[in-house]
Each structure stands twice: as C-alpha cells, then as structure tokens.
What does this fold into?
Amino acid sequence: MVLSEFSMKVFLFILSLFIFQSGYSQDEHAEIKSVINRFFEGMKSADSAMVRKTMTDNPVLMTTFTRKGIPQLQSEELDGLLKAIATPGKPGEVYDERLLSWKILVDDRMASVWTPYAFYIGDNFSHCGVNSFHMYKSADGWKIAGIFDTRRKENCP
It folds into this structure.
C-alpha cells in the first residue's frame, strides 16, 4: 500500500506529537519523583526544613487505618508532621519509608501519585500501606499539595 504525500505528512505529524508528548511526560514524572524522594530523604535525615520545601503552603494530610476493627480517618496538621520528622523518637532512630512502586498521572498543573510503601523505624518494620500524593505545579515547580495514606501491619509485601 502506498501512502499519498498528504497521508505521509499527517502520519509524521501525529508521530512527532506522540514522541514530543512521551518525552514531556517522562520529564514531568522525573520532576515529580524527585520532589517525593526529597520529602522522604528529609524524613530519613530528620530534616523538617527539607520536607517543608517540598510542600505547598497548606497541604492536606490524611491517614486511614483500622483500630480495634473500626475504620478510622485522621487528619494531621503540617506543624505536627514536621515536629514528628524533626524528632523521630529515641536518639538515633531513623524514619525510613521505602517506596515499592510508582504510578504517576499528570494533567497540566496537577498530578496524582500512588506509591505502596513499607515503613521502618531504624531496622525494625513498623507498618505498610499506600501513599496517594496530590501534586501541584507552581511557578517554582512541583509541590506536594496533599498526602492521603493507608497504614496497616497485615498483608504487607
């Protein structure tokens, strides 16, 4: 089958759009991952200032878990999170949240990121779950606008 010159131009135009969009998405994904990785680097090093720089002014922080068989939904204030990160407990303890995989969806200045995780305090397993990050692309780049996470001790990877 022979393509007409017009058909070939249309095909090449569509192909170039696909290639451009693919590269753009990979760059966006890399930037988003970098912000989330900095958040966890700050947590692991007890550097609340580093964590704070990854977030918008008023991020929404929510956790869901089950206590005594009853589903719970708990919100957290940013100051409480930053204090917990800066003072992780016993001297020498490290909060180490290990991300197991990534699913990133982007549209314009908004992104959603799904990251299953395992959480350790030092070398001791604490819990697992999934983070759902809500990202916003500000004039300064991607920022965490909210985190909704699950926490459990059973059925962990």
